[in-house]
Amino acid sequence: MSDSTHGAYTISTDPGRLDLDRIHHWLSTDAYWAIGRSRQAHDRAVAESLNFGAYVTSTGEIAGYARVVTDHAVFAYLCDVYVDRSARGTGLGTALVTAVRDHLTPLGVRRILLTTDDAHGVYEGVGFKAPANPGDWLVLPLQSPPSATP
Hints:
The structure is a single chain. Helices cover 25% and strands 24% of the residues. The longest helix has 13 residues, at 92-104. By secondary structure, the chain is of the alpha+beta class. Strand 3 and strand 4 form a beta hairpin. Strands 1-2-3-4-5-6 form a six-stranded mixed sheet.
């Protein structure tokens, strides 16, 4: 477990602190990549991932979230990064992504991937870059059954 601070926020990997109801609500109703995600799929994804919560230090209320799919050794995929609308503009998104990077680096993880339509500046500020050879990357899109929408 790791904790760091950013202004009025504490960032933690403690899974017991996660507010799963609120995170699911954020993602399934306000995150373009997860609109309509089922609670079942959400809970399964959280259970199988490394999760980072950002909390208002004085109240413990969750204000941001990031999820990492990783083997904890060489590879990670950063996804579901979300900051509550009331906390946007505070640098909390950058702090969350920095916490992810700083947590994974000592483990030997050599590559963290992500995809974004609208937050390139946040990620570039932490060191993310477009792939040098984007033509080398391939994607296998799968059609999920409606009850298991990721």
